[in-house]
Amino acid sequence: MAADARLICASDELRDGGAGVRFAVVRHGHEEPAFAVRFRGRVFAYYNRCGHVPVELDWQPGEFFDDSGLYLICTTHGALYAPESGRCLGGRCNGKGLAPLPVEEREGFVYFIPEE
Ligand code: FES
Q1: Residue 34's domain is classified under what CATH number?
Q2: Mutate-to-test residue for ligand 1 from 47, 77, 88, 94, highest number of ligand atoms within 8 A of CB
């Protein structure tokens, strides 16, 4: 694991298709909101920024999935994203997906791996 890996949360805080965990990453000297979710057993993380308008996806903190638990949804206008890739699947994201972040799950914890 990279030396500068940053703890996001314990693995059991992320239920499959359930609530996500918000965290922040520093990019170009600014802190930007991000989130991690679990889908089909794996953990994925993205900048918390819709492809339509650069707002955060969750009105209720941590609520990133739609009711089906199969898609990530922006609560502002309902754009849908694939949890495993961030790809825009429909709605106002108009083909513009979520920006992914590298994460690693190890020994019961989830880490953000900053890019060198
Ligand atoms: S701001 Fe996300 S769909 Fe419009």
Answers
A1: 2.102.10.10
A2: 77
Which range marks the domain in which residue 35 is found?
A: 6-112
Domain count, the chain: 1
Closest residue CA from atom 1 of ligand 1? 53
**Residue 25 lies inside a defined structural domain of this protein:** yes
Residue 72, token pair as written in the block: 């990530």
Indicate whether residue 15 lines ligand 1 (CB < 6 A): no
Residues 61-76 have pLDDT tens digits of 999 999 999 999 999 9
Would you say residue 1 lies in a domain? Answer: no
Q: What is the pLDDT of residues 3-36, one digit of tens each?
A: 689 999 999 999 999 999 999 999 888 999 999 9
Distances (CA, A) of 78 to 8, 66, 93, 105, 111: 26, 9, 9, 29, 29
In a domain, 55, yes or no: yes
